[in-house]
Amino acid sequence: MTQFVSLTEPASTSLPVVDSNPIYVPSHHVLLKDLLAIHMVRTSTSNTIVSYHPPVERSKDSAERLQLLVLKTGDSPCWSEIFKKSNDPTFLVLVMFWYVLYGWDETFEVLGPHIDWLEVYIFETNDIYAAQELHKLRASLLYYQQLLQDFRKSLNFLRATPNPAMECNSRIGLTKEECKTSADLFAKEVDHLLLEVDRLESHTVMLSSQLKNLIDLAFAMDNIEERKAATRDSSTMKQISYLTMVFLPASFIASVFGMNVAEINPGSTESIKHYAEATVAISLITGWLLVAVQPHNTFHSPGSDVWRRLAWPLISLWKLCEVIFGLTEQRRGHWERKEFQSMV
């Protein structure tokens, strides 16, 4: 005798559950994250299977759907043949595992075309905000990969832990051939599930790689558009610079004739000499400060402090003198060697 109980947690519970935010796809499908926990108690006289389902917003409750599918398992010719050959109730747990795999298959059937649609959409619109949807899908795929690994561990546990009630010495009327047939059927079904898990994992890795390529493509196309925009801006600034150069001579002449100097405006107290002296002095001070406040400049050695940067004119002059005198000494030694060779 096997009892099957499905429990659904109330929506008002405070226990943390997986984020169930839906993923909407253009093909009028909605992907929802669901969880399934199974607990089975196996004895020689009775067996109890308890399935736990967190609350999920969907048209039909997942617990009711799972219970309906398990009850309809006997209508399948394949499972009917298995149940005829074996009385092991653990096969019902494998039925639930197949139910989970079918859910993953349906999810990937929807995700594949959706990712292809996103690829075409990015090519046509170059919408950088589509990268958010790609990140969301990739996070879901990574979550699926983790669930598949846990799924594989559960299958390996079932294969390594046979039902103790199915041992030949624990039940009257169970022959060795029946035990062997049941064990072989169970191992075969678990191997089929593991093969399906491998297929789903490879499909998940392929979709994840495709999403990563699409994310890189979205950012690359956005960078290309930004470079094009920067090129357009630089062309505009270049045109403005050309326009400024056209009016630069006129502006310079207007500034010269507007100076308050005696040579241009008789009766003024200032002269062009004073203007030139002030201009040269202020220009030198400005250049000296501009070079001094820049720590990474060709005039400064790496790690120079503030005082060394302020003294850059003297240091540069000293280096220039060293170069000049060094060249002079090299030339002098060269001529002395040449004169010595001619004398020899």
TrEMBL record:
| GO terms of molecular function | cobalt ion binding; cobalt ion transmembrane transporter activity; magnesium ion binding; magnesium ion transmembrane transporter activity
Q: What GO CC terms are in its UniProt record?
A: plasma membrane
Q: Which UniProt keywords apply?
A: Cell membrane, Membrane, Transmembrane, Transmembrane helix, Transport
Gene3D superfamilies for this protein: Magnesium transport protein CorA, transmembrane region
**Mainly resides where?**
membrane
Top-level taxon: Eukaryota
Q: Where in the cell is it found?
A: Cell membrane
The membrane topology of this protein is: Multi-pass membrane protein
Signal peptide range: none
Which family does the UniProt entry place this protein in? Answer: Belongs to the CorA metal ion transporter (MIT) (TC 1.A.35) family.
The molecule here is called Magnesium transporter
Query: What is the species listed in this Swiss-Prot or TrEMBL entry?
Result: Paxillus involutus ATCC 200175
